[in-house]
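User: I'm designing a mutation panel for Vacuolar protein sorting-associated protein 51 homolog and want to avoid disrupting the core. Could you give me a predicted structure to guide residue selection? Please restate the sequence first so the numbering is unambiguous.

Assistant: Good idea. Sequence first, for numbering, then the predicted structure tokens:
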Amino acid sequence: MAPAHPNPSPAWGVGTLCRESIFPILIPITTFHPCMKENVSGMESNMDQLLNTVTVIRGKSDGVNASLCERRERIEELNGTRSLLRKVQFIFDLPQRLRKCMSAENYAAAVKYYQGALPILKAYGQTSFRTCKEESDAIISNLIKRLQAQVMDSSAPLSARAQAVSLLQQLNYPVDTMMDTFLSFHGEDEVTVKLDLNKRLASQQGLKALDTFGSRKDLLNEEEKDFIQEFLEKAVTFRELFPKGEKRLLQACHEFFDDYFETVQLTLQPPSGNMSAAELNASFRQLSMDVSRMNELVPEANLPARASEAVESAVRKHVKDQFQNLYSRMKASLTVADTSKTPDSKESPKTLQYFLDIAQKTISNSSLEVLQDLKELLDDRKLYLLRWADEYTDLVQGGFQELFTNLVDHFLFLCVRSVETPSSSDKSQSLQTVTPSLIILASLLSVYLYQTAVPQITETLGTWFPGGGAMGSDGRPAFVPSEICRFFHTTGERLLQQYVDIQARKLSLIVRKAVDTPNWLKYKEPRDVRMFADLLLQEVERIQIEVKQLLPPGPRRTHRHSDSSGSIGSTRSASIREDGHRVASSRSNARSQLLERDVARLFTEKVEIFTKLEYNQPWVISTVVKMTLKTFEECVRLQTFNRGGYQQIQLDCHYLREPLQNLVENGTVVEILLDEVCSAASERCQDPVPLETAILDRLVQQKKAKMESAKEWPPTLPGP
């Protein structure tokens, strides 16, 4: 068999096929059909003839191939050259083709042409085809801008926008950049979005403006639009245009939700003031609708939980602000009462009872207003507040617990502040001056709180805020009325006692100066009552007028002594007044009389300075007078007197006896205490010779006549 030609002709192929296909056929015939052996005797010669014929055919075919080989290679070379020339011509015609496509808005063909020429432009764009590349790149840049605009054109068909995204991807435009551009707000700034959100949240309650973001006029002129709906539509379109951009969409949604809820917090918790419950409810409804719509788009964002957190935060701040305002109003009512007595005021002074009534009304009415406001938040059962209604009930009850506890602390602070001596630094800070009037007002306000206000509030809480029962860390309920009442009961008694102590200290200071100032060893025989006695009576009268405005008169009591004690007390008083008759002649008789007084003192009724506290006029006046006279006695015990000094003390006590007896519920107590003052002066006297009773009466009458003539002597002070 001749070797295969490198370029076999069709004849060569046919000859080979014939020769190679005949023998497989003849072999099985010869082998498997013995009956045919008789007819194949001449086949060998025929096969040789056939082989020769095929060989001739192959030779001629090889000759033809050899003669056409050079021509065929030339044709192929010319075909390659022709193809290259077509490509070169395509590159040179590319800018024109692109312009025609741009004019016809056949953007897909333009991208196809550019992508076909891109390999050549990359390889030879800096040399042979530099001009074509620059022109084509400029046209493609313009095309990219048009495609971007088409993607962002909401009025364009969705199929056209999807085709634009596909073409941009073919042009290797960054997909992330396309996503960011698509999800942008067309240049809307954050303030515009917040204005729209505030307008939406405020639309339910008729609030057309909030001070946080602008004026009423600005919001009324703002074009109505639903930026949430716009974002939702963008998100749906985004999913259609960018099927593989779900991760970027979720990221954009989270950023949008963060801004949204940040604005919600600013809207629900405005720094300029507190919203009412009705306004909050309206905002919550709008928030619920917005979150429901947004949650359908991105359920995995867990927007209802975030909305619940925003609502809970706003409600907690609202409750806290309500109780802070209530506490401030309660404090302000006391402050107004304390600062109302200005000497330059032309209006008639208002009584303490007037300010007490104002404070009581402030507590009751303001507490009811707060309860009504907080109840509105609980009434709307469609809001997120329903998820923690029991906790909200405990929050309200705990607010009253904290409110009353802070009020008790404030009253105790006033009590402590009233006994402190303000330093120069305190004066410069203009701290509140705590007067006795403020102390007694706070005391009676404490009584009102634990007797009336706290029970009323407890009853209203049980009716409007049932349930709750969440315990604190110490296992206590949120609101414990019995504890609050006990606090106010104790605080009220402490404040009333503090009022008595303050007034007694003022009077004691007058007495102390009157006793400590003179030189008693050189004192002359008394001719008149000293000025301190008048000042003391004036102060007692002032206290009586102040107490009468607030405290009840109390039961009228008649102090009864046993026969023995009464006789001893009267004998002792009589013996002191009659000392002048019995011991004027000799000092030894005076000393024996002192011994008699000491013996009589053993059987005299003991005076209780501090008795059980009572909210009435007699107890307050009696306690103040008793504490003052006891201070008088103790100051006298620290001095040494001559005869004139002792007699002056005796005259002052004789002058104070009748007015003070008319003030207290038990006149005998005043008599005993004044006798003890005289006894102390007698014990500390070098020559204890008392004045006769007639002389004392005459000097007192002269004092009264002198003051009546000068119109300075007040009428006899009325009893309690």
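For picking mutation sites, this is relevant: Residues 119 and 543 are 109 Å apart (CA to CA). The two ends are 157 Å apart (CA to CA).
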